[in-house]
Fold this protein.
Amino acid sequence: MTTSTPFFGTTFHVVTFGCQMNKHDSERISGMLEGLGSLPVNSIPEADIVIYMTCCVREAADVRLYGQVASLKNVPLRKESPLTKRIVAVGGCIGQRDGEKLIQKLPHLDVVFGTHNLVSLPSLLGEAIADCGHHVEVLDSANSFPTELPTSREHAWAAWLPITIGCNNFCTYCIVPYVRGREKSRAMDDIVSEARSYVAAGVKEITLLGQNVNSYGRDLYGEPRFADVLDAIDATGIERLRFATSHPKDLTDEVIGKFATLRSLMPALHLPAQSGSDKILEAMNRRYTSAHYLELVRKLRKAVPDIALSTDIIVGFPGETEDDFQQTYDLVKQVGYHQVFTFIYSKREGTPAASIPDDTPREVIQDRFDRLVDLVQHQAFERNQADAGRTVPVLVEGASRRDARLLVGKSPKNQTVHAPIPQGTSAESLAGSIQNVRVDQAKTWYLSGQVVR
Ligand code: SAH
Ligand code: SF4
Ligand code: F3S
């Protein structure tokens, strides 16, 4: 293949922002470039080719990208590089949104690509290497799934498996439908055969991905078939199965029931509530009420009393009053989450909410945010106490970054668990295995204990 020649002897590094979709796309990019003879490296100074996979869901991520790419100008190319200059590419959601405009703002950028054309990246990079020019390709919609591309997974024992791409929900604050396009489901046979190949390769945990996995299949089969996907993946023999993200309006009783019946489905669910105020939920176009949400929680806990719930909350949506915020606070209190991802509303140009008048002072929003974070921390601590004294099966990820004498891994409820590396073993040899850990201490963000053999 002629496009492969420019890559021999080169090194590359992918910097990933944003959600699991980007992480998955980055693994595909690594798979393609490794296949073409480029070597992955862990830092920017060592890399001849740097690729940013970007996110624009909130303003902070946007700003960070511009700063990082601008500062690359001062990082010299390594001496052994076969290239005459470093090649810098920007893809993902900012690539899709800004296209050509990025090159105007960052003239030393070589390649811009969107969310629908990962497959073109090697040829765009190859052209940039050959002619040192700018190469931009952003398509309006996808004609293939990135899952048809090779992959180089971050961990051998865990795999992301996209079942849908895009989103049709148009929550009024959210940029995702504009940068990821309309929802498309992947054929069930494809999904199952990919899952089987992972099981055969020794993968222990599969996470099904989609902006709203619950509506899987509506475009292909006329009705959601997510519960069928869960059955089919469970039947492959995979050890642990998870999925993200679930939209409360589409979470069916059938799917809730699977938590009680499917061997592999882990007792943890991320169910973004966004707000507890019906007025705000309506303005967000979420299409459920707080009562409906609480009913889902009741059913989930009936199916699996000990299920760990997590959520996303936006504080300071335009027009949010103290009373609206109190309703959110009460909802969070009532549910009792294991984890809550809290965000301050960030105005995104081009979304409907961007034109709603927004006059709540910044300090008021920050104060609400701080109160919520306080509650969330107390709640996480309380929830984790239920596991103190229990023995939990932990899927080991390796040595802890904070303390190399400790193993780190995940419990079925997706809690981070630490334990000293047992004598005669090593973090490397245990990575990817499931070890029973007796929990001695339950903290806010992790459990710690001893491996029992
Ligand atoms: N499809 C998923 C995830 C979307 S993005 C879902 O529907 O849950 C992840 C989270 O970012 C959202 O759940 C929301 O809480 C947050 N988010 C999205 N747009 C935002 C904005 N403009 N400002 C602040 N938070 C936002
Ligand atoms: Fe954004 Fe809503 Fe789609 Fe999630 S469901 S990606 S929040 S529009
Ligand atoms: Fe960000 Fe795009 Fe995901 S905007 S959250 S990377 S879909």
Notes: DSSP finds 15 helices and 19 strands in the chain.
